[in-house]
Amino acid sequence: xxxxxxxxxxxxxxxxxxxxxxxxxxxxxxxxxxxxxxxxxxxxxxxxxxxxxxxxxxxxxxxxxxxxxxxxxxxxxxxxxxxxxxxxxxxxxxxxxxxxxxxxxxxxxxxxxxxxxxxxxxxxxxxxxxxxxxxxxxxxxxxxxxxxxxxxxxxxxxxxxxxxxxxxxxxxxxxxxxxxxxxxxxxxxxxxxxxxxxxxxxxxxxxxxxxxxxxxxxxxxxxxxxxxxxx
Length: 231
Fold this sequence. Notes:
three-stranded antiparallel β-sheet; 231 residues; single chain
């Protein structure tokens, strides 16, 4: 998937990076020559049209970070027949034994229930933990997926369109929660206003290249138009 990559953090604050890496998806080369550094404390909005490689880059970053990265994928990857509680709990499956996980499936652990209930309350999911995910709205499912990533309690949050299914006000609230729990995060977005207002670094992609990598406070919405121009 990639030729060379670095992962940290190191003395310069780099927590993950790619040096002339080739990233591909389904045998299709998306980034033929990618060089990028993610620094500790970066709050990065990843922008670009659909299909330019945002998901490919985030997936490669997720692999590089390993258990340092909390992953919130675009398709949610929820189990529709399980409750919201059990889907959130899945964020820490690796923390417990197989026997404990089986018992929790039958009867929720008290400590885990308290922790997940408190997290759910902050996401507006109070009263919905026992409900099957396939009975929730798209926005509620999105919040369950974010809750699962937050419950992983890992230092770096990686989100692929995590606020795409919620209204702008909820989107701001969810980004604030991510910010409160993670010093470093990389989030793919389509909403350029959210990117400019709630992130400190913007990376823009087009045709397998990074064409923008700049502090958010040095950019305007007009500067980002180049990312959405089609032939």
